[in-house]
Design goal:
The protein is an all-alpha fold and 100 residues long. The protein has helices spanning 3-19, 29-37, 42-63, 67-74, 77-84, 92-99. Helix 3 crosses helix 6 (92-99). The longest helix is centred in the middle third of the chain and has 22 residues, at 42-63. It is globular, with a radius of gyration of 17 Å.
């Protein structure tokens, strides 16, 4: 009987998180990006794209990566995840604010 309240609380938490804004998922970058972009205006999509570019450039500078490093990273999904880990779980709004 004690399992029922726990199960209900877990189900409620899942429903509440599912209703929130879409977030970037480092493990599913294409799917989460598509979900994040689907309800944005064209202007918001541009802002989001520019924010991602700024954040990526900032991370490249922080890591002191060369052009050859970038080529290697782009071919290695795990290294790309590490480069973009800072946006994992963030919403479009949060990502745009990070870039400012």
């Amino acid at each position: 009987m004690k399992k029922i309240p726990t199960l209900l609380a877990t189900a409620a938490a899942l429903l509440l998180t599912a209703c929130g804004p879409a977030t970037y998922d480092i493990d599913k970058p294409e799917e989460s990006s598509a979900e994040m972009l689907k309800d944005l205006t064209q202007e918001e999509k541009i802002q989001f794209s520019k924010a991602l570019q700024k954040i990526t450039i900032k991370r490249i500078n922080e890591e002191k990566l060369s052009l050859m490093d970038l080529v290697k990273i782009s071919e290695d999904p795990e290294k790309m995840k590490e480069l973009l880990r800072c946006i994992d779980g963030k919403t479009v709004e949060e990502i745009i604010k990070m870039a400012e």
